[in-house]
Every structure is written in structure tokens, then in C-alpha cells.
Amino acid sequence: MLFSVSGNSNKKHFCLHCLHSCVSEESLKKHKETCLQVNGTQATKLPSEGSKIKFGHYRNSMPAPFVIYADFESMLVPEERKVDPEDTEEKSTTELYQTHKACSFGLKTVCHYDDQYSGEYVSYVGEDASEVFLKTVLKESIRCREMVNKIFKKKMVITPEQEAEFWMTRNCSICGNDLGDDRVRDHDHVTGLFRGAAHNMCNLKYRITWKVPVVFHNLRGYDSHLIMQEIGKFKMNINVIPNNMEKYISFSLGKSLVFIDSIQFMASSLEALVSNLSPEDFKIVGQRWQGEDFDLVRQKGIFPYEYLDDISKLDTKELPSRDKFYSSLYESEVKEEDYQRALKVWDHFKMKTMRDYHDLYLETDVLLLADVFENFRKTCLENYKLDPAHYISAPSLSWDAFLKQSGEEIELVSDMDMFQFFEKGMHGGRIGEEKDCWDNSDYPKDSPYYSAHNKKVIGKFKDEAEGVPVIEFVGLRSKMYSYVKESGGGGMTAKGVKKNWKKSAKLAKHGKSENHVRSMTRWLQFKAMQRNKTSVLQQLNTAHQDQVASNRQYLKVIIQSLMYTAQQNVAIRGHEENRNDIWEVSDINRGNFLELLCIRCNNLPWLRSKLQSQLQLHAQWTSPAIQNELLEIVANVMLERIAAEARSSDYYGIVVDETADISRTEQVSLFLRYVFDGETKETFTGFYSTKSMEGEVLYELVKTAISKLELRLEDIDAECFDGAANMSGARKGLAARMKECSPLSIYVHCHGHRLNLALQDTMTTIEPLQKALGVIQSLHNFLEGSPKRHAIFKDIEVEDVTLTIKSQSATRWSCCWAAVKAVVNQLPKIIEALLSLSKDRDPKTYNDSNSLLNSICDFRFMLILSNTDGLSRYLQGKQMDVVTAKKSVDGVIKTLSGCRTQENFDLMWSRAEIMADEIKELIEDTDFNFEDAKVPRLRQPSRRLQALVGETPEVNAQVEYRAAEDHYRITCYYLSIDKIVAEMKYRFEGNDQEVLLALADIVFSSSPTRENIELVSDFYGIDSELLGSEKNVFENIDADYPDSERKKRRQNCEENVRKWCS
């Protein structure tokens, strides 16, 4: 069975004590000489060859959030002593004379991060104390775990400076190794603060533990026995780390509770440990007691353990006499001063029974233990960045502290001979116990370690610092060094150097040597540190801070240059981005960003050297990837600020529109509209790609976008979309779906978009208008589509102002009106240009110019509608609100309706005749003729067909008015006005704007209508009578103010409502 331990097929010789295999009998004999001495009679399992160990318990650097401190008190019940048998072989060496039964316990839960989450002190007295303790501590562990999952889960809060630091950091903030591409943001889940850049796996391991340590003082020697008697009743997993069959170093119950022994870290009595603390160290005891109470309880008391052999003795009404405090285990009595102090405690706290003294003694023991161990945790966290609550003993803590502080990877011993060599050569204990190994003759004679026995004995080590730690050490070469002790002072050694220099030339030569210069430099640096009261660590820290400041200043320039190109909307990158000499002027197109950095090198002298040094480190932070990351960081910061402003305003509105980019990808734009610091803001949050424009898809997209900004959907009070079915549909439209999560939001269709839809529908319905706009668009395409034709048009000189022929837009009427205006104001120039181009030899130019001239030289082209351009611009103003817009629209509709008269038509007809006369003069003596206004020929039904179906042929009634003026007045002018008025009335009604108008009436008017009050009440789900009463109260209060103050208050109120309605 043992032969297969190794792959060697030769004969093996095994040690029957440790089961180690040797290759020969000689090596086995040498092994046996030390095997029993080192290993005893146990098998030794060594790690595989080449195994190494390094610090990896980074999670232990995170303090345990909750620690439970506990203690038991027991009754010492006497037992009858048995008569020993005469046979010495059957005689037992153990004598049973007392049985310890737990009669009470106390426990205190301490939260490391926030004391408000610490538990209250809990105690219990009863013969079932052990069982009740386990139930209580299990319940407390569940509470602690719930607190960890509920409270210590804060989201990360990171500043722009920290975000920049995250990208600049090269080493992991947890393990210290190079980050490379494995980089995540690590933050404190307790405070939410950013901690640094870390590896993904390090970040996952470096988290708060949900295990709860339960600390007893002397758990191994006493309290574990009381717990183990009852722990079997709980059907839970129990893991034990035993010292032997009776003593347990640590054990765990379930997945949360870990029982540890504080005496394994601080091997002293609780009384001695408490005496080492200063008054300000008693944080927990100090919260419980103050003043004279505090002075009495911050020392460990005494207790008559053997007196308490029955729980009924707790009802004793006086403190037992001094002899009752005798301990037969230690065969000692309490000191008189300790007993007098116990009497003082009894009187001071006005105790009536022994139960009061017992409860105070138990509580002070628990809280004193909590203060002692919490101070120990604080010391370890400050010095080693490790929490002892994660360990079971001081050796395990010190081993991890050694690995963490050194940062080294240590190879494990895998050879048995080497292992025995180390084990045999180990010397345990303090230096005083191994005096023979040291030359302590330099120690002070009053030191307990002083000895002249080994003075100047070869092989004995000397401690020149006399046991005091060394904080500074400078070594030049062997036997030439200097040091500074922690307590002050130090020493210098320069063996082998002559004290007297007989030749000055030799001294001068030495003064120029490299060793002397280096030594003097270090000495001067050391003296400077002493004068400035600094150290090497402080200098390193200062240099690090300077480096951080320099990097931040450099990164600030990078970000400023990048932001300039982004704000000016210019290209960032070039064709050949050579970064080896950014500071030099180059004729290569390196892009605006790198060229801007080159220019800034002239104004910032340090930037040139910084770019050069960063180039050597391969960290210039100017690559395209870094540019994108910086822009993304800035965008995220801006979005967070926008979201914070929107959150601070309590309510906000959204504006959503869809479009397609140049790659034909459907996109949705999202805006937020809110009031911040008294100012209405409308901010763009981004484009969001989508594969579908259905209402359901848009609804989920908007919900996701709003949720990412950490805004509440129910706080949306207004929505602005277009009137398409996917937006305004009654069931599946985006507005209808948004009502589910934002029931109080008001849907408003953009008024400017409504006006454009009304005008576009009118233009496509009235045939003369549609043809006229088509001719104007064709003029733009013809004259502006060729540089040659554009030059001919531009070179023609006229007295009027020259305007550019503009293109029309399918969604903006203002663009259509601008195109119409440009043609009307320079029609003579256009005709002259077309006449010139009609003689061109190019067939296409010839045909297009002739066709456009024939279209223009028509009286129908003179009839153009231009009544609504002012309204379109007004409705798109930044300060426009729904109330004012409604009034403006109503005014335009009224004006247009008033224009439907014979007088207004006559004015327009006269203007068209004047323009027609001008065109006739321009085309005189050309081959082109002007077509005057005439009634189009009306087709009559076939008389034969009428006779066939039995109808009587009649003359069409429309032939009765045969004047061209009457024809265009009815079919063009009146029809256009009727159509636009009908479209505007239809487009500007519906949705939720009636609610806004009703709300404005309630606020602005002193006597709002009952219908408006009912409408607002129904929409917001409030009592209409209550709303009307509050309006009356407001008006009465407002009447009590002077006229000027009342006017000012009303203006402020109206301004706030307008901002809300806008």
C-alpha cells in the first residue's frame, strides 16, 4: 500500500513511525535518529515539491461587521468523594469533587461600523442557561446577517477626480499586483465611497463577511465544556478545531457562528488585560456607566464561585463574608482591598440581593472583555490591516501578518530531511529562556537578560540596540553601517577604517571616490531628515503625493483639450496619429486633439517634459481608447448631475422623439424638463437605439433609460410626444402605456409639430398650392445643384437684397415659408437666370430651364399662402408655455377666419396681377408666353351615356360662374382658408392640455369656472369642493396684502405655474 506513494519503482525503506520512505537502509537509520524526537508517533504529510505560499486572505483585512462577546457564570455543586480501591492499578488519578453547571450568561453584540446597529446587552439566569444561550446567539446571528444584507449594501459614490484616478492607477489597491486589462471599481459597501481600482477576483473576495464571531475569554479551557453539553440538541452542522479530545481551540455552529477564544490571542487574565487600558479606551463600558459608576466597574471584580452551589443563594440579601470567596482550586483567598472594593460596589449601586451583585459582575465581565478585544482589533487593523476576529489564534494572525507585510512568496519545505533539520534546530520561547545562544554583555546590568557569560565568545550573537527596535538603518558595506533606535540615539560602525590619515593626498583621493560621495549624500539626507523631523517613509509619502498632483495636473490638460474638441463639434482624430513627438510641430494630419496639445506645450513648459516622461512609461493617456473612456466618463458625470437636478425638483417631464441616423438605424432621443433653482431646464440625456418603433418597445426603452438615471417613474408629471399612432394610440401607444407607471402625467403633443402637420395637410390638398411649392423646390434643386448654374444666378445684379434659394422641409413650415420668401423677393433675378440658362447647349439644362420658366409664367403660381410663419416661430420659442400657445393659436384661427372676405381676396388678387405684369415685361421679346388666369375647362358627361342610362342631359351648374376671379376665390382662396382653419382646430384639441388650461384658470383667475374645477379634481383624484374652498381661502388671504405685495405674489405664482405648464 505504501509502495505506490512515489513513482520510483526501486526498493523503498519505510519509517514505521511517520511512514516516510527512504531509498536505502543508511538513510533510514539517519532518519530514525531524529524522527521520534521531532515527529513523535504521528505521520507527517509534507507539501508537494515546488509548493509556495503567499498572502491571499485579503478578505480578512475587511473588519467583521458584528462580533458577539459572551460569558457564563456557573454553580459549583459539590460531589461526594468516592473511596479509592486498594489496588493501585485501579486507582484513578482524577478526583471529582465539584460539578460546574451553567446558571447564567450575558452577551453583547458590537457593530464595528456604526454603533447604532450594535445590540443591547442580554442576560439570562436559570439552570437551562446553556440551551437558552445557544438559542439566543443563533437568533442574534440571524439579525446580524439581515443587517449586513440590508444596510451594508450602499451603491458606489465616485467623483470625477476618483474616476480619473481609477484609469491612472496601475496596481491593484487590494493585492498590489499589476492591473493590466483586469480592472474594476472597488468601493466600500458600508459608506459607498470609492476605494480604488482592483482586479475583478480581488474585488469579489474583498467583501464583508456574514459570519459572526462569538468571543469568550478562556473558551478552550472552560466555556466550551458548558456549550458542548447542549450543542448536540441543535440539528446543525458543527465543525471543531480540537486541541485534544477535551479542549477545543475553536468551533463553528451552522454557517454563521464561529466561537473563538480571546485568550488564544492575549494569554493573560482578563484582570491583567483590563489594567493595561487607559480610561479613554473603555468605549463600551463608558457608554453604559459614567462618573463614579465608571470608576468602580472598569476594574475586574471578585465573585464567590464556591459559595454559589445552588441558584437559590442568589436571593441572599447581603454580600457573603470574605472567607466565602476562598478558591480551593487555587488554594487562595481574596485580598482585603478587593473585598472592601466589593462592599463599596454593593453599597454604591444600592444592591438588595446577591442576584444584583451577580448581574453587575456578569455584565462588567462581558463589557470589559468587549473593550479589551475591540482595542486589540483596532491595534491590529492599524498596524497590520488585519482583523483578529477572522482568526482563531495569535499564530495564525501573526503568520498572515508576516506574509502580508513582507509581500514575499515563500517556498514550502517538501523534503523530510530538511524538515527535521529545521524542527531540531528550532529554539522556542523568549530570549531570556535561551541566554546561552546570545552575547548579552552589552545589555544594562539591571536588565533581566544581562549576562557576561558569553562575552566575546565566537558564534554568540550580539544585540547592539539593547533590545530596542531600530527605525532607521543605512548600510554601506560589510561592517560599515549606522542605525537609529526607536527610543532615540543610535550607533555607527566602521570597522577596518584607519582613524589617522597620515597623507593628505590619500584623504583627498578618498574624498573624490564614488563610495565617499555616495556616503556623504546619504549622510546629508539623513541629517536633513533629522532637522525636518521626517523619515524615509514620510519622504516617500511626499514624493508619492507630488507624483499624484503632477498626474492630476497632466490629466486635467488632457481632459480640457478633449472637451474643447467635443464642445466645438470638431473631429478629434487625424489620419496618422504619431504620438512619439506630440510636442513638435508636424505637417502630418495628427488630428485636432494632438495638435491642440502641441499648441499648449508652448504655454505650459512642463507639459513637454511630462509628455516625454509619460511616453517612456507607455502611459500618455492620448490613445483613441482612452479618449473614448474619458468622454464616456464626462458624459456619465454630466448625466449624473442632470439626474440629481431632476431628483431635487421632485417632479419632471420627458420629451421623446424618434429619428434615424445616417446609417439608417432607428434612434430615440430623450429629454428631461424640470425646474431647478427657479429656472426651467430642458436637457438632452442621449440617443437610444431600437429595432422597432412600436409603442410597447418604446415604453420599455423609456422605462429602462429613466431607471438608469435613478429617477422615479411615478414622478413624471408631463410627457411630450408626437401624434403618431405608436405615441398617441389609445391602447398601445407610448402615452397610454406611460399612464400605468405615471398616472398623474399629462400628455402634450408638440404645438409646433401640430402646426406643421396642419399646414402640410393643407398644402397637399389644395392643388395650386401643392404645384407652386413643387416649382419652388425644383428651382432650388436646379439653381443650387450645379456650381455653374449657381454662379450664373449669383452674378446677376439686381437692386433688391440677394437671398439664397432655400430647400423646403417635410416637417417644418418655417423652412417652406423661407423658400417661398426667397423666390418672391427675387423673382426677376430668377427669371433672368433661367432665360440665360435656356440658351445653354446642355440638353438637360435647356429642358429644365424651359420647363421651370413655363411653370413660373403662370398666373396660378402667384397665389401663395403665407399667413402662419409668425405663429410657427412663436410656438417654437424657448419661453413658450401651453397657456400662451393656446391663446396664440386661437388668435391665428380667428385672424384666418376673418380673412375669408371678398375684400381680402381682392387685395391678394391685385398683388398677383402686379407680379404677373412684372413677369410679362421680363419675358417680352422672348419665346416664352405668360399664361393668364382662366377657368379650367370642365368635362361634361357623355350625352350618349346619359341617354343610355335614362338621364336627361343638363348643363353643369358650375358653368354658371365663368369669371376666373370667381373660380380662384372659391376653389383656391376660400378652400385654403377653410382647410387650414379646420386642420388647426382639429390638431390643437384633445390630449391632456385641457387639464393644464383648467389648472391655469384656477390659478390665474380670481373666479375660475366650475367646469375647470371639476376637470382638475377628477384628473388628480381630489375633492372638487375642497379645491374650490382652498381657492377662495387663497383669494381672501391675498386680498389682505397691499396692492404692490399682492401683485408681486400673484406674479410669482403665475411664473411658477407657467414653468410647470411649459
UniProtKB/TrEMBL annotation:
Listed Gene3D superfamilies = Ribonuclease H-like superfamily/Ribonuclease H
* BP terms from Gene Ontology: DNA replication
Q: Which SUPFAM superfamilies match?
A: His-Me finger endonucleases, Ribonuclease H-like
Keyword Transferase attributed = yes
As one GO molecular function, the record gives: DNA-directed DNA polymerase activity
InterPro entries associated with the record: DNA-dir_DNA_pol_B_mt/vir, DUF4371, His-Me_finger_sf, RNaseH-like_sf, RNaseH_sf
Q: Does the keyword Cell wall biogenesis/degradation apply?
A: no
Catalyzed reaction equations: DNA(n) + a 2'-deoxyribonucleoside 5'-triphosphate = DNA(n+1) + diphosphate
In short, the EC number is 2.7.7.7
Instruction: Tell me where in this chain the DUF4371 domain is found.
Output: 501-730
A Pfam family matched by this chain, by name?
A: DUF4371
Query: Which UniProt keywords are given for this protein, alphabetically ordered?
Result: DNA replication, DNA-binding, DNA-directed DNA polymerase, Nucleotidyltransferase, Transferase
Per the database record, which ranges form the DNA-directed DNA polymerase family B mitochondria/virus domain? 213-431
Mind telling me which PANTHER family this protein's record contains? PROTEIN CBG23764, RHO TERMINATION FACTOR N-TERMINAL DOMAIN-CONTAINING PROTEIN
Which protein family is it in?
Answer: Belongs to the DNA polymerase type-B family.
Put simply, this protein is called: DNA-directed DNA polymerase
Q: Which species expresses this protein natively? A: Paramuricea clavata
